[in-house]
Amino acid sequence: MTRAHLDKQPHEIAAMFDGVAERYDVTNRVISFGRDRGWRRLTRQALGLRPGERVLDVGAGTGVSTEELARSGAYAVGVDLSVGMLRAGRRAGQAVPLLAGDALRLPFPDASFDAVTISFALRNVVDVDAALREFARVTRPGGRLVVCECSRPVNPVFRAVYLSGVLRAMPVLARWVASNPEAYVYLVESIRAWPGQEELAARLAAAGWRRVAWRNLAGGAAALHRAVR
Question: In sequence order, which residues have a C-beta less than 8 Å from that of residue 168 and are 6 or more positions away?
Fold first, then answer.
């Protein structure tokens, strides 16, 4: 079984996700207690996509998030570091374009997209600030970014329960359904190490994004950060 370390070397991250690819979507549904579909829908709505626009889904995995974006009528493209995840998506019949690529070196020209999004994958990138600048590079002026990511619960009581109970339960639940349960030990560690809402907002602004704001989901256990190029 393969798990990555928190130094987040790309080859380790890719290998780890290759190992969970076959049952990744099912496992996500279980450990998110069924919230994953709603969060994908909220991400699409936050982007404000219009028919004919071009949207890039970074860290697309098996492409379920990319297909949700395409429901808007926009032309949605998914890119992911894990070839195993992309293959699993193609075997599942995803109808959207899915490409192999690194968030730090996206295979697209400048200003290629009207919108860019990344869901629950930014914390797996080895250089978050460089990735945020790369997202800005491929987004047209005035285009939008939405980052859906794990965050910090705002209520102190819920935060304590979340950190000591919910996060501890995730690897246990994963052992029942995941194809590589060890990967979920790393994923919990990465959630614990991830910055809160204010710090991520400041990093977005430092990377050149404007009008940065966020909306808490599940009491702040996750958050939707929005910004404009």
Answer: 188
